[in-house]
Every structure is written in structure tokens, then in C-alpha cells.
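Anyone? Bumping this.
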Amino acid sequence: MQLLKDRIIQDGVGIGTEILKVDSFLNHQIDVELLDQIAQEFKRLFGDQNVNKILTIEASGIAIACITAMHFGNLPVVFAKKTSPNTMTDEFYGAEVKSFTKGTVSIARVAKKYLQKGDRVLIVDDFLAHGEAAFGMADLVRQAGGKVVGIGAVIEKQFQGGAKKLRKESYRVESLAVIKSIKDGNIEFL
Amino acid sequence: MQLLKDRIIQDGVGIGTEILKVDSFLNHQIDVELLDQIAQEFKRLFGDQNVNKILTIEASGIAIACITAMHFGNLPVVFAKKTSPNTMTDEFYGAEVKSFTKGTVSIARVAKKYLQKGDRVLIVDDFLAHGEAAFGMADLVRQAGGKVVGIGAVIEKQFQGGAKKLRKESYRVESLAVIKSIKDGNIEFL
């Protein structure tokens, strides 16, 4: 998606060899006009998959998921929670999600009533790196007896291998911008 | 906002005397069609305030802020972070936010470059309870030299006093549904 690549070139900041900061338009400040274009692209890619639910994980995925849901005819959005709030009294599905950058493991949770057998779920997120969050969300859908019909990532850091692992498990992955490498702050696209 | 009240009556769950669960449409599963109506209402209420930025706090506020921003002509959204991610290398404004329900204190952070002198900020959030999050966000705007032109809450728990305290400090607060009390699961509106 050229508009997104242009924006990453203009405003993205590469740090070391692992990190791409896009907090001026995606995960701290949010450009909703760009997200609207991103959502349209997800609709174009997955519009024929009879999606009935959009799943993401807090926090940055929520914006993408909601605007995508609007383009899919106002489908319900569910976001997995990384912490267990005191209002989460229902039974939930849980999946471990490792964060390589933070060096932590958290449990992604979705209350059982919000994922059902037969659901055709589109998973969306801001980044696809090692694939941990996507695998965790896919596991939540599997536990519920639903089907992941696609995984849409705004930015894939290809060199961290997540997309490859997901495709090996037969998931359909579509990334709107694929980063091949980050070196000394230089961002190289595929 | 009648549509919202009806939805709270239909799907909201009162727990004890303090907690209202609305996770079937607002903060776990999200009904984007309802959010679109909510955003329209914020536009109606604050549309004349020359807002140039929408501020919220992760996680549930993000969806509301983004859809509201679309109704305000695609204004930038900024969401305050509750944790300091490893990609947050810039200088930031910070404000303490106490959570009465969780019994914790966290620091809400916004990178300095995303709040500026002269900004006319609309703060939105899902809940207005004791007002801690709103006061914290207002403090971030004040530190930056901006002005809070309004605070929009989807649901106000009036009995927790936040709106009253904010209005005493001359903030304009608009809540789309005002809960007077929660008793034995019974939700009483103002």
C-alpha cells in the first residue's frame, strides 16, 4: 500500500535493528484518515471471506479494528485484553502472548461469550513481528470453535519471521507494508 | 442520549453499587454503529469549539476518540499511555491517575510533541467516574500550554462525583448517559 509506505518513509523512525516507531500516526497519535484508507484496503483483501467479527488486541489494534469494522458493514469488534480487569467476571479464553521487545509474557483474554463456534474472524493489528500476538489471538478463536479467515497487519517486520510461521500454519496473512530490515535507522521495504 | 440509555438498560450489568459492565458494546466487544452515533452526538455538543485535537487514554477510549475524530473532519487523535513502552524515547508529559476500582496509581503519558501550546483539545473517554483520568488528561494539556475545550464522557457515574469536581474547576463536561445509582444490579439514570 503505497500511501502507507510513503507515510512510514516520511514519519517512521527506525531504532537499532528491531524497532520501527510509528507513533506519530499509528500508535500514540493516530491519523484516522490514514486508518480509513487502511481499513478500505483490508476490506478489499478480505471482503469476500464472509467475516462476521473483527478481533484485535489492546491497545493500538483497537483503532484499526473499529474503522475496519465500519467498512465491513459495522461488524462487531472484540479486543483481547492483556490484563484481567475487575469487571471481567465471566469465563474467558486465554492464550499466552510473549513480547520479545518487552521481554514479558502476558495472557490475552476474551470473554467466552464474545467468540463463538462458527465465527469467521478477521484478526487485525498494527504490527506483525514475531507473530506472538497473532498466534495468541488465533488460539483464542480456535478454543471457541471459530475460524480465522484472515490476519491483516498494517506493518509487517518480515525479518522477525511471524508472517512466515503463520503461513506455515495455513493462515492467510496480508500485510499492507512489509519491512525487510532496519539498519542504523534505515528502513528497507520488501 | 436515548439510544445509549436504551442500550445500557438492555445490555449493561450493574455489579454491587459501583460497577457498570458494558463490555458487550463498549469496552471489550465494541458496537461501532453505536459509537458512530455517540461520535455524532459529541460533534453536535462540541462542534462549535474549534477543537483541533482529540485526547483520550488507552484502551477503551481509543475507539470512541477515533470515530469522534472522523466526525470532526479527521482531526488527530492522541491517546495517553498508561505504561511506558520501550519505543517511547521522547520527552513526555506525565500525570498521575488513580484507579479507585483497581486501587492502583499509574502515570498517564503523552509525548511532548503531540500536545502543543495553543491546542484546543476535546477529551473523550468511555467512563467518567471519580474524574481521575479526566483530571490527569487535563493536566497533560495544561502542561503543554493547550486548552481543554470540553470533556465528553459516554457514561457518567454521577454518584462518584467526577463531573461535579471537573465543573467546579470550570471544565465543560458533557455526559451522554448519567447514572445516578447502581443498587443490587439496578441501574438508575438521572
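Late reply, but here is one note on the structure posted above: The mean pLDDT of chain A is 95.
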